[in-house]
Amino acid sequence: MIPGPIEVSPAVQAAFSVPPPGHLSKAVMEAFGSSLSRMREVWIAAPDAQPFVTAGSGTTAMDMAAANLVEAGDRVVVVNTGYFSDRMVEMLKRLGAEVSSVGADPGDAPSVDAVRHALDDARRRGGVKALFATHVDTSTGVRVDPQPLARLAREHGALSVFDGVCATAGERFRMAAWDADVYLTGSQKAIGLPPGLALLVATARAMKARESLRAKPPMVLDWLEWLPIMRAYEDRKPAYFATPATNLILALDASLREITARGVEAHVAVHERSAAAVNAAWKSMGLVPVPRREELRANTLSALRYPEGVDASLVGKIQERGVVVAGGLHPAIRNTYFRVGHMGYAATQPELLLRTVRAIGDALAACGAPVDPDAAVAASERVLASK
Ligand SMILES: *Cc1c(COP(=O)(O)O)cnc(C)c1O
C-alpha cells in the first residue's frame, strides 16, 4: 500500500508473466496498438492527440515532456506543490529555461490568482512558453485542479503540462474538454502496472511546439523519433527505433482494458469512494492529513501526520502487521508523517483497504495512541457499503 509500485490485478500479472515476446511479434503489435487507442480513451483526449509509450519511469515522461516543448531562453511557470514539482523545476533549468516557480507551504497549493500573476508577469517580460503542474504531489498527497490551470495557460498563449504520475486513471482528468496539452504518467502508480513504462499523450498543438524547437531533444526522448513507431503500432505494423519493454506492453493493454471496461469515470468514482472510506477511518482515529483543506486531498493516497507521541517507527509496526506503507518524502516535513497508497487494483478491493485500516489502527494502539481500531474499520465499512 505504498504510493507505487502498487499491487496489480490478477489479469495484469498474468499478461506480463510470459517469456519475453519479440517487439515485432503479433501479440506485442496488437497490445501496443490497442493500448495507444485506449490511452486516448482513458486520458479523454481528442482523436488527433498523440499517445507515446516508451521504456522508462515517470521521471522519463517528465523529461520527455520538458525536452520536447522547452529550450534555452524559454520562459515557463511551475505550479509547485512539493517534491516532484521541484524535480520539474530542476529539469526545466537544465534545459536553460527561465523558470518562475509558484509555491506554497507543504500541504498547500498556490491559488489560481497567484498562478495568474506569475503568468501575467512572464507575459510582460516577453511571453510564456508553458505552464507545468503536478496533478497529485505524491510527497504530500496534495491534489490541484488542472482545469482552471489549463484555462489560464491558454489565456496566456502557453502550453499546459500536467504530471499525472500519481493520478492518471485515479483522478478526474479530461484532456480534450479542458484543453490541456500534455498529461503524463509512469506505469507503477494509478494506471495499475509494474514499474518500467513512461506514458504520455500530447496534443497536436504540443507536437507543433516540438517541430518549432531550434535544437533537437536527446534522441531517445524525441517525439519525432518515436512518432512513426507509435503510428506503425497503431496500424498494427512492425517498426523499430528502440526496443520497447515488451512484457509491460502486454500488461498495459490488460490494465487499460480493465479500466475502459469499467468506464473511465466509473473507475475514478471507485477511487473516490475508496478515498472516502479510508478518510473516514483516519478521521475516526484522529489522524490529521498533510493536505490543509479537504479539496486538496487526493483520491490516490493519504499523507497523514504522526499523532502526538508517535514517530516514524510506526511504519515498521504497520509492516509487522502485514501491510507496507511509506514514510514521509517532502524534505521539509519528512519525519512528521507517513503515506498510504490507495490507487489502482487496491482501490477496487475493499478487503485490502480494510486490512490496511486495521493494521494502521493496531500499530497506532501498540504505540500508545488513543485509537479504536474496531471503530475505524467500521467507519470505512460504512462508506464502502453506502451507494
Ligand atoms: C512517482 C512520481 C514521479 C516519478 O516517477 P518515477 O516512476 O519514480 O520516475 C513523478 N511525479 C509524480 C507526481 C510521482 O508521483
Which helices and strands, and how do they pair?
Elements: H1 10-16, H2 26-43, E1 50-55, H3 58-69, E2 75-79, H4 83-94, E3 98-102, H5 112-124, E4 130-134, E5 136-137, E6 142-143, H6 146-155, E7 159-163, H7 175-178, E8 182-186, E9 197-202, H8 204-211, H9 223-234, H10 246-262, H11 264-284, E10 301-305, H12 313-320, E11 326-327, E12 337-341, H13 350-366, H14 373-385
Parallel strand pairs: 2-3, 2-4, 4-7, 7-8
Antiparallel strand pairs: 1-9, 5-6, 8-9, 10-12, 11-12
The structure holds pyridoxal-5'-phosphate.
In short:
By secondary structure, the protein is of the alpha/beta class. The protein has helices spanning 10-16, 26-43, 58-69, 83-94, 112-124, 146-155, 175-178, 204-211, 223-234, 246-262, 264-284, 313-320, 350-366, 373-385; strands spanning 50-55, 75-79, 98-102, 130-134, 136-137, 142-143, 159-163, 182-186, 197-202, 301-305, 326-327, 337-341. A hairpin with a 4-residue loop joins strand 5 (136-137) and strand 6.
